[in-house]
Specification:
This protein has helices at 11-23, 36-46, 58-65, 84-105, 140-154, 178-187, 206-218, 238-248, 260-276, 287-294, 302-308, 316-330; strands at residues 2-6, 28-32, 49-51, 70-73, 109-113, 125-128, 161-167, 170-171, 193-194, 200-201, 204-205, 227-230, 236-237, 257-258, 297-299. The protein is α/β, with parallel strands linked by helices and 332 residues long. It starts with a strand and ends with a helix.
Length: 332
Amino acid sequence: MKVLVTGATGFIGQQYVQHLTAKRPDVKVFFCGRNLERGSRLAVATGAHYFRGDLQDEPYVKLICKDMDVIVHCAGKTGLWGDYLDYYHANVVTTENLLAAAPHTGVQRFVNLGTPSVYFDFNDHLNVTEEFLAARFADHYARTKYQAETRVLRAHSEQLKTLSLRPRLVVGPGDQSIFPRLIQSHQLGRLLQVGEGRNIVSMTSISNMMRGLDCAVFGPDEVCGDIYNLADPQPVNLWQVINQLMPLLGLPPVTRKVSYGVAYALAAVVETAHRLRRKSTEPDLLRYKVAVMGNSFTLNIERAKRKLGYDPLLSIDDTLHDFAQWWKQQNG
């Protein structure tokens, strides 16, 4: 079997290339990604073939899809700030190009990495199922990822089997975003507990993410044509997790607090000032970030367990220790 992983210089894609090359000797792994330096290192470390190019380039896409059996599509533009067209081209156009090339190049299965951001509406939500959808998308990322996902599901056919995964807050060794940003903010003295610290959230350990991807890639055809939430077996208290992680890194726990209302109002002022000044950089404080840090948000993963065969095992405690060990190695 030949598997192409897009966006493999990002966290999840990179981890999956490493996972496949280490655990699946019967699979030939190919990958692409925007970060040339990181992609070159990954190719040397794993022996997987690195395709350098742009997924918005249709001839390039046809070339890298040729003779592949499965595409695992992790590429895309993340973040909370920027122009809609940038997100549209990076998330929707790239997906359209891959889906257009797949049936003509031998691809039989297309696994899409979606996002539970499509549920996010700045409110508390518990046990969210795949049918739920925010009345209004919170940002361009959620909107364009949903547009891409609808194209993936529409492309499902006898010739090309498609499905989409929606993992929540993927963390663990190799994390380039969630934990590192919290650590940096805490080191700078900027991290404050938002609200009373009672909010519970779904998180996804990277090892469970790998299990979910394996189910999607190697599962029977019956798993295709659907959307699946992915997360760890049990939700966790977000601030307990943060204060469990920090001492593992030699940092003090987060003790300072700010009320949700004050933080949200201040974020609104910061966003408005950024827009008036037409700044392209993402502000440090956003209403979205305040809502994520102060609200409860958990996913129902029963469909993934029942239909996809998803069996999450690793606990958040193990993931925190693994991340801390990796982080200290990376940062001396």
